[in-house]
Amino acid sequence: MISVENLKVEFGVRPLFHNVSFVVNDHDRIALVGKNGAGKSTLLKILSGLQQPTSGVVAIPNDTTIGYLPQVMKLSDDTTVREETRKAFSDHVKMKGRLDRLQQEMADRTDYESPDYMALVDRFTLEHDRFMMMGGENYEAEMERTLTGLGFERTDFDRPTREFSGGWRMRIELAKILLRHPDVLLLDEPTNHLDIESIRWLETFLSQNNSAVVLVSHDRAFINNVTNRTLEITCGHIEDYKVKYDQYVVLRNERREQQLRAYENQQKEIADIQAFIDRFRYQATKAVQVQQRIKQLEKIVPIEVDEVDRKVMHLKFPPCLRSGDYPVICDNVRKDYGDHTVFSHVDMTIKRGEKVAFVGKNGEGKSTLVKCIMGEISYTGTLKIGHNVQIGYFAQNQAQLLDEEITIYDTIDQVATGDMRLKINDLLGAFMFGGETSEKKVKVLSGGERSRLAMIRLLLEPVNLLILDEPTNHLDMPSKDVLKEAIKAFDGTAIIVSHDREFLDGLVTKVYEFGGGKVVEHLGGIYDYLRAHNADTIHEALDQRQPQSASDPSASPATAIEAPSGKQSYQDHKEQQKKIRKASREVEESEKKIAKMEARLQELDQLFMTPENASNMELVTEYTSTKEALDKENDHWMELSEKLEELQANA
């Protein structure tokens, strides 16, 4: 499908990679891996046609369509969510317009027996058949399934896109790409702006989709669940492993051990030859043997050992001033946007030195409460910031706010003050930006490198309250571990908004769960929280969240897991949750059926392209029956989804 031959890319003197050759086949699901700065994002840009290599060939058939989602995208739209997403079906809309015009022309004309009229009917029939083969007008249902899968509520569909954050607008772009059903999907860190629920939906979508996939991700579970092949950029070339990521790690270690053994043997051989040359170089009787050894030495091709990124990000937050005993106290805090209540009756006390987690589905108010603490938005109730509290805030979009046109050094030099200006090079070196790297412009940095640079800015002022909103986005697995250890060693207080249970494990001692307009406190670490919900993942725990009774608004939500009270007995609640789980399974089963039928229709479309199958009545019959079944299943999915929404609303 895509053939890459002898690709070479140079930035400066040293090539980023060279002699790179590989093929992306139909149905390949490829994980593109390599250390930060190895060229993963650059390679995706080249495959998408947005960047040209220094030399080499990227061959893509003319009829092959490609969908590319970059890490960072500059968005400028002013439509509703529905209208923006519908742009993915621009070809459908144009074809529907042509059909409407042809139909109107047939209605207006009366020369039913003329050759021109018959030609018009034939043209309408051909266009209509093509329109139906492309899915007809069912794209609206497919569009809604995709948007809801990526976390949007139906009430969001008619909201202007400008009301959404950059992360949510990136979801809209992802939805548009998926809905176009390209032959090849190129996805650069697609999970960075998704919550656990949406990540699982995307895993299922990609696993059932017929498109070839090439993706870059630091989410190990995600790439294991999606991919079946691993391409590693190492030492400036590509190593191709026809296995999932976990198996690749094992094979890569075995490969490197073999390389090291061969390298050591070669070095011993070189040393022995050199020792012979040095010993007998000036003995005339050994002149012939010495010349033979010199030629032998010249013919040896050095064995190259796959590089391992052994550089470590040494991250240590500076000593901080002692804050008051209680940096954050919330008393009956409430936030409304118009008629919508984000949360109410929030009672929260965070002690000095505590590390706490905010968890909850997107849109439940985690970032909103953070903004209340930061004093960026208004609220009702009482929110006290303790004595001598100095806040350091790392937002989700922090890396995107950097000035792309200046260098790494200048980025830090602009905000450094006092003695810190003399230590900029040391600080950059600790974050793997030492030497000539510090003179790179921000615009050439990868997402992970930008996040590290944004983190440096946070270190320039001693703070005693850290608020980190999804700090692990764009960070690779080793960098996550380093950041985690630094936060554990931090003298002050930390609030961490994250869905990454492995990152939170052993780091936090209290979990605040956001959902249903309430904030519930859970004492203990993240796995204590999961055990309390009898769940394996944060996603499952949030699904099992037991809402507080509306009849008791004065009850404090900041307690351990609440039992239903008032109108709803425990048994009623349990039965309601059982119905919700059943309805959810029915929706998932319906989506699987739809995906299977859509895949079969795509296969039939390909078969119809060949002359021998163009008039195969058996295939035509199958296509018609499958299309009818798909239409019915789409309607059935709509009914099931509405039923599920009703059950969840009454839970």
From TrEMBL:
The lineage of its organism: Bacteria, Pseudomonadati, Bacteroidota, Bacteroidia, Bacteroidales. Pfam families: ABC_tran, ABC_tran_Xtn. GO terms for molecular function: ATP binding. PANTHER family: ABC TRANSPORTER ATP-BINDING SUBUNIT, DRUG RESISTANCE ABC TRANSPORTER,ATP-BINDING PROTEIN. It comes from Hallella faecis. SMART domains: AAA. InterPro entries: AAA+_ATPase (IPR003593), ABC_tran_Xtn (IPR032781), ABC_transporter-like_ATP-bd (IPR003439), ABC_transporter-like_CS (IPR017871), ABCF_ATPase (IPR051309), P-loop_NTPase (IPR027417). Residues 2-260, 328-541 form the ABC transporter domain. This is ABC-F family ATP-binding cassette domain-containing protein. Residues 544-558 have a biased composition (Low complexity). Signal peptide: none annotated. PROSITE patterns: ABC_TRANSPORTER_1 (PS00211), ABC_TRANSPORTER_2 (PS50893). Residues 543-575 are annotated as: Disordered. Keywords: ATP-binding, Nucleotide-binding. It comes from the Bacteria.
